[in-house]
């Protein structure tokens, strides 16, 4: 497994407790995002190192850089159709491009624009953006907000093949860590090392509601 992990109990001491934060594992070249699929799609992606086969290029796909948000969404890989957990090593330049072109799914999350302007941008955008409550390993809502990004049309085609550096199947790791959660042994729980992702673009940071600390 190419992702770096660390004890959850140690990480939560360092993580921000509230606010909008893109919690992720990243470096200058890549950022890791997570998705969960049924066996046919997940195995094809790992074997071929791109998304194809039964993966739909006509439906919006959502990526999540926050591991625990993905675990909440997939029930730690137990929900039907989300049994295969993937860690996708994405070009960081592509991720920045997604953010720059993203439009909020809800007008309530926008600032500084009219409803008509937001509606027009939403209809013409192929990338959706939303902040949702982050969750702890048990699924409880946190004050901190987690980001998810929806891709479609030209962006989903780029994501499916050109933007990816590596696709890993981390389903076994997820299964092993879920046992600690089920047994209330969070002292043994390991999660991917994550820290807030901040861009060197103040306008974009303001759009994303990200505040430098």
Written description of the protein model:
The protein has helices spanning 8-11, 39-48, 67-74, 92-101, 115-124, 153-162, 171-182, 202-207, and strands at residues 5-7, 19-20, 23-24, 30-37, 61-63, 84-91, 103-104, 127-135, 141-151, 164-169, 190-192, 195-196. The strands form four sheets. Strands 2, 5, 7, 8 and 9 form a five-stranded mixed sheet that branches. Strands 4-6-10 form a three-stranded antiparallel sheet, sandwiched between helices. It has a two-stranded antiparallel sheet with strand order 1-11. The chain has eight helices and twelve strands. 33% of the residues are buried. The two termini are 31 Å apart. Helix 5 (115-124) links the parallel strand 7 (103-104) and strand 8. The protein is globular and about 50 Å long. The protein has 213 residues and is α+β, with helices and mostly antiparallel strands.
Topology at a glance:
Blueprint: E1 5-7, H1 8-11, E2 19-20, E3 23-24, E4 30-37, H2 39-48, E5 61-63, H3 67-74, E6 84-91, H4 92-101, E7 103-104, H5 115-124, E8 127-135, E9 141-151, H6 153-162, E10 164-169, H7 171-182, E11 190-192, E12 195-196, H8 202-207
Give structural attributes.
single chain, 213 residues, alpha+beta, 8 helices, 33% helix
How would you briefly describe this protein structure?
The chain is α+β, with helices and mostly antiparallel strands and 213 residues long.
């Amino acid at each position: 497994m190419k992702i770096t992990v660390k004890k959850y109990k140690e990480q939560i001491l360092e993580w921000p407790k509230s606010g909008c934060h893109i919690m992720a594992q990243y470096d200058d070249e890549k950022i890791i995002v997570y998705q969960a699929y049924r066996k046919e799609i997940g195995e094809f992606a790992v074997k071929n190192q791109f998304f194809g086969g039964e993966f739909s290029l006509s439906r919006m796909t959502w990526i999540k850089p926050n591991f625990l948000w993905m675990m909440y969404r997939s029930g730690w890989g137990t929900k039907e159709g989300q049994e295969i957990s993937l860690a996708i090593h994405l070009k960081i330049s592509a991720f920045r491009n997604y953010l720059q072109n993203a439009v909020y799914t809800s007008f309530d999350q926008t600032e500084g624009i009219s409803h008509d302007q937001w509606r027009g941008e939403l209809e013409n955008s192929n990338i959706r953006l939303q902040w949702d409550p982050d969750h702890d390993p048990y699924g409880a809502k946190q004050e901190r907000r987690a980001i998810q990004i929806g891709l479609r049309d030209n962006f989903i085609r780029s994501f499916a093949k050109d933007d990816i550096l590596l696709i890993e199947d981390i389903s076994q790791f997820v299964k092993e860590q879920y046992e600690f959660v089920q047994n209330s042994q969070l002292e043994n729980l390991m999660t991917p090392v994550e820290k807030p992702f901040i861009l060197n673009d103040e306008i974009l940071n303001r759009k994303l509601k990200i505040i430098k600390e």
